[in-house]
Amino acid sequence: MGKTCKPVIAVHGGAGTWPPEHSQPALKSVKAAAQIGYEALQAGGTAVDAVVEAVASMEDSGNFNAGAGSALNVEKRVEMEASVMDGATLRAGAAALLSDVRNPVRLARVVMDETDHVLVVGKSAEQLARAFKLERRSPTESVRAVNQYEAQLNALRQGKGELPKLAELVKAHPEIFQLETVGAVALDADGNVAAATSTGGFPLKLAGRIGDSPLIGCGVYADDRSGACSATGVGEVAIRLVVAKAVCDRIENGRTPQEAAEETVALVKRRVSGVYNDMGFIALDTQGRVGAAHSSPNLCWAFMDEGHKAPVASLTAKFVK
Ligand code: ASP
């Protein structure tokens, strides 16, 4: 196909709760990420280039639960994960259980481009990152993540005292948990779509836990026959409904990305009810239409296309009750 499409990018910084002191830097960072991704598209880059650059910038910002700002697991360690998918070829790559890779999304791309596999985890994934000379970040936790960890652990101790009660605690105190995973979806000038997602995972997760973000179809999906989606929310719920693929399937069946995102949030609420099930999606299709919806209090997100001089950012999209 010739260069006929008008590039579009949308990014998100998670389906969490954003208090005022934290929301301003986050809004700035999603705008910057949308701008970086859009510039990659304008320079002739592919949708994959755009989503990787946009997500890498949010990983570096320290303002989200990904990369430098990753939440800590119950052992007070960082275990990051990320994924990327190319809608033109259905190639995908992902990595998980990472402690010292500066940009997990770049490692996901290495897995996609340079290996025969889709998901590589742990020490071997970190070795792969070293073999491809990806930058490392010292596994020292961010100050914000340590503060959050102490608050989360204290609340857990006072409130319930047992980890299986985590879901109840999150329901009562959503503000202290960081559903601030980052993601991006893009359409390039060739009409191809891509998606990427990156996270530190659910705060206080068990060591070794892998969520939806690096699982293709769950936290991320892209297919030129439908569109692209990056998901954020409770990973254990997202996995069970394969939510990112569910959004793309709806687009393939004729829904707009907005309708598809809203319907899939509603599906989550209907099918996995009675547990903490906050969810959020950004999506786009090959016509460049963008959708965003969430059931969490906020969805921090931004988009950019040729109709705008600068990225448009917001702390909410369509809220699905
Ligand atoms: N989906 C992520 C996880 O469960 C959390 C998030 O979206 O912030 O690991």
Keywords:
321 residues; single chain; binds aspartic acid; five-stranded mixed beta sheet; alpha+beta; eight-stranded mixed beta sheet
Describe the overall structure.
This protein has 321 residues and is α+β, with helices and mostly antiparallel strands. 36% of the residues lie in helices and 21% in strands. The protein has 9 helices and 13 strands. The protein has helices spanning 20-42, 47-61, 104-114, 122-131, 143-159, 166-172, 235-241, 243-252, 257-271, and strands at residues 8-12, 80-86, 91-98, 119-121, 182-187, 193-199, 220-222, 227-233, 279-285, 290-294, 301-304, 312-314, 318-319. The chain has an 8-stranded mixed β-sheet. A 5-stranded mixed β-sheet has the order 7-8-9-10-13. A hairpin with a 7-residue loop joins strand 11 (301-304) and strand 12. The longest helix has 23 residues, at 20-42. The protein starts with 7 loop residues before the first strand and ends with a strand. The mean pLDDT is 93. The structure holds aspartic acid. Residues 14-15, 65, 179-181, 199, 201-202, 211-213, 219, 232-235, 238 line the site of aspartic acid.
